[in-house]
Amino acid sequence: MGKAWTFGENMNTDEIIPGRFNITIDPKELAKHVFCEVKPEFAKAVRPGDVVVGGPNFGCGSSREHAPIAIKGAGVQCVIAASFARIFFRNAINIGLPILECPEAVEGIREGDEVDVDLATGQIRNLTTGAVFQARPLPDFVLKIAAAGGIVNFLKEHDIQELINAE
Amino acid sequence: MGTLIEEIFSRKAGRRVQAGEIVLLDVDYIMSHDNTTPLAIKAFREIGKPIYDKNRIVLHLDHAYPAPNVMAAENHRKIIDFVKEQELPHLFMQGVCHQVMLEEGFITPGAVVIGADSHSNTYGVMGAFGAGLGSTEIAVAWVTGKCWFKVPETIRIELHGQTQPGVYAKDVMIHIAGLLGMDGATYRSVEFGGEYIENLPMHERIIFPNMSTEIGAKCGLIAADQVTIDYLENETPATGPFEMIRPESPCYERVLEIDVSTLTPQVACHPDVDNVKPLEQVEGLEVHEVYIGTCTNARYEDLEIVANMLKGKRVNPLVRVIVTPASQRIYKKALQNGLIEILMDAGCTVTGTGCGACIGRHGGILAPGERALTTMNRNFVGRMGSPLAEIYLASPATAAATALTGRITDPRKMQKSE
């Protein structure tokens, strides 16, 4: 359970973490500057378990993994967006930052609402309004990566071929 | 039977694949640069497995090169030490990664190349699959030689006619970005074709796959033809035979027909790539910097257009005009043919090669309240430094005309007066 932080459409990777801060790969250091351009108060006020809520095409722009790492480093539990840009989608899964695609939830959550997310079922509850939303299920191979806590951990235990082998 | 991406992936998979399938493919080359390699090295150490094939790994120092600060230098050190430790054969400090990948012949028709850089889509110009992804996946590919892909649906963009003088591929692509929007092709392959594309030289074709990233595309493709083969044979060390893979009875999600013959110079205005206007609507807007560079528009022919327009003239003395050739090879050719001298005489600052000002790290950072007109592919807020600066994207010709006046200027007016 955490507080919702809402962002607009086309939230790009430069807005998530500007290029000038990407000279480090330390999650805590990156987290100090996350969203500094669009929501300067975010980095100081965010609490572990909070949820980022974004519009369509969240994470568009560069391939920098620093963007999901900065968000994860800030303690964000999950990113809910109307849709994700493709590289951000892959990167978030690979580094173990939970993401859910749910346009209805984005419509029904306001800044500061208390939100509860069940990643296993994709159910999103707005505790402030009482509304409940169901996110689109993630593909099987994505769930395999998520279950391992990211692709690096997956590879420690498995062969890459196991990702897409039939169940 | 399939779209160009289905044909390319089918050859690689050794069986027919169709849009919607998840496939695990062998990758021909794995590209990363000084911004993204340090994270890949970290992930590589965590995975703890050996490199699958050293020859497939291509590393570049270009994003903050030469190092503008100690942390950037530390990144370079980390990468060079890794190259020594693993005895990797391909490390380049010769310019923007994507340009060097093409020049060095790593990209051939039908190849599957991934890069830890969003503009890896550029490789689609050779009829190859090129896509950007993150550092962790780069490390995964280092140790497995493989990457997973969802075979994408395809949007075909059929371009008809010929552009008018003063209108370039950049104007056409900016126009397309305005039509489709920043998420207009998300997860999709975008195929560019039609008689306009067929008649274009390589340096103009590159703009389309390169900027397909800006409309969210997974890849932007142009089928290989004789122009592609001529480039490979004459300009790169790649050796054939090269296969000209083409779409075969394709089934497209959507086909867009565009007549380029009536198009005028276009500008992508602050703060989004899809905030596109015909130049006349922003003509006269004051600029403080003109930046000619990047993987989009800093090739020899781009510098030639600029030099032809600036020859014997002086740029506006209150505007910083910065030219960053995309690669050492381009720089050297421009030097040998006198272009650099023309640019310098006109008052331009010519910098070393690399990504330069495009990522706001060095080489032309903007102050709050400033406005730049550039040949880049991306104008996000804060991209070139201050979040309070504005970035406008246009062709090299528009950049040259604007450099002369200090205001956004229609290049056709300057070209006519010659």
Task: Provide a descriptive summary of the structure in words.
The complex is a heterodimer of chains A (167) and B (418). Chain A has 167 residues and is an alpha/beta fold. Chain A contains 8 helices and 7 strands, in the order E-H-H-H-E-H-E-H-E-H-E-E-E-H-H. Chain A has helices at residues 13-16, 27-31, 42-45, 66-73, 86-95, 103-107, 140-148, 151-157; strands at 2-6, 51-54, 78-81, 99-101, 114-118, 123-126, 132-134. Chain A starts with a strand and ends in a 10-residue tail after the last helix. Chain B is of the alpha/beta class and 418 residues long. Chain B has 15 helices and 18 strands. In chain B, strands 4-3-2-5-6 form a 5-stranded parallel β-sheet, sandwiched between helices. Chain B is globular.
Give the N-to-C terminal Cα separation of chain B: 51 Å
Q: Round the Cα radius of gyration of chain A to an integer and report it.
A: 15 Å
**Helix-strand pattern of chain A:** EHHHEHEHEHEEEHH
What is the fold-level CATH name, i.e. the topology of the largest domain in chain A? Aconitase, domain 4
Low-confidence stretches of chain B: none
Q: Describe the biggest sheet of chain B? A: 5 strands, parallel
Determine the CATH superfamily of the largest domain in chain A. Answer: Aconitase, domain 4
Sheet with the most strands: spatial strand order of chain B: 4-3-2-5-6
List keywords for this structure.
heterodimer; A: 167 residues; alpha/beta; Aconitase, domain 4; seven-stranded mixed β-sheet; 8 helices; 7 strands; 17% strand; globular; B: 418 residues; Aconitase, domain 3; 2 domains; five-stranded parallel β-sheet; 18 strands; 18% strand
